[in-house]
Amino acid sequence: MKFFITLMVFSFGFVVLAQESLQDASSSTIVDTRYKEDQFYFGIHYNLLAKKPTALSQSGFSIGGAFGKILDIPINKTRTFGFGVGLGYALDFVNHNLAITESNSNSTSYTILNTADFSSNRTSLHGIELPLEIRWRTSNPSSYKFWRVYGGLKFGYVFASRSVLKVSSETTKTKGLSDINKLQYGLTLNAGYDTWNIQIYYGLNPIFDEITTTEAVAVDMKLVKIGLIFYLL
Q1: What's the CA gap between 129 and 140, in Å, rounded?
Q2: 36 within some domain
Q3: What CATH number does the domain containing 15 carry?
Q4: Would you write out the chain's pLDDT as a tens digit for each of its 233 residues?
Q5: Alpha carbon of 80 to those of 83, 101, 137, 159, 219: distances in Å?
Q6: Is residue 34 one of the residues assigned to a domain?
Q7: Which residues, 6+ apart, have CB-to-CB distance to 187 below 8 Å?
Q8: Which residues contact 137 (CB under 8 A, 6 or more apart)?
Q9: Half-sphere CA count of 113, side-chain side, radius 13 A
Q10: Which of 134, 162, 172, 196 is least enclosed, having the fewest CB within 10 Å?
Q11: Containing domain of residue 187, as a range?
Q12: Structural domain total, the chain
């Protein structure tokens, strides 16, 4: 987790410095009327669980991040409106009180714990993401500071997952969670000015595929992400 946060801070600093360098260079370069914008992205966000059972709660700080490349496709002469198709990598951590354990027969059980019964319980998801965006912005060929509003869909494929439960001095690790919905998709909205942009993702399908806890509680919670996204080039 510390490495992940350090990477986020370092990457943010790189984005800011790169933007400033591009702005300084723009005054001495030829104006390109066929320019493209926001072709690389980096984001950091907080993970929330929506539509979770009443007894299920989040604990600790659930952080996530993503980076990737987007093909910018302007469709008007001023290049202020267009589409974006991208490919990236996402890493998400979710802290909660749903214990995920696997028996010797490879069957998985789910139990909602009292917060006093464990010290930490975290699920991590590694995924490849495919953002599809409708893009509007106030950009022009000679300035890197402009307003943007990008909305659309994001598809993700979870290729690795893990749950780590710590109870007193005992740690239980479960890898390759069998009931994870490997295909995740949801609505996205990214909006802001210059470097600072808010990002929102609302999952349309559950994180898990039709699971029930040992208390006979159905769990169909969805993932919501709220954070910042930074664009480059």
Answers
A1: 29
A2: no
A3: 2.40.128
A4: 554 555 455 455 544 544 554 455 444 555 667 788 889 999 999 999 999 999 999 988 899 999 999 999 999 999 999 999 999 999 999 999 999 998 777 789 999 999 888 999 999 999 999 999 999 999 988 877 899 999 999 999 999 999 999 998 899 999 999 999 999 999 999 999 998 999 999 999 999 998 999 999 999 999 999 999 999 88
A5: 10, 50, 5, 35, 43
A6: no
A7: 151, 152, 153, 154, 201, 202, 204
A8: 37, 38, 80, 81, 146, 147, 148, 149
A9: 22
A10: 196
A11: 2-29+42-232
A12: 1
Distance CA 172, CA 181 (A): 22
**What 3-state class would DSSP assign to 217?**
coil
Angle at 176 between CA 62 and CA 159, to 5 degrees: 75
In contact, 79 and 139? CB cutoff 8 Å? yes
The residues that bridge with 50 in the sheet, in sequence order, are 222
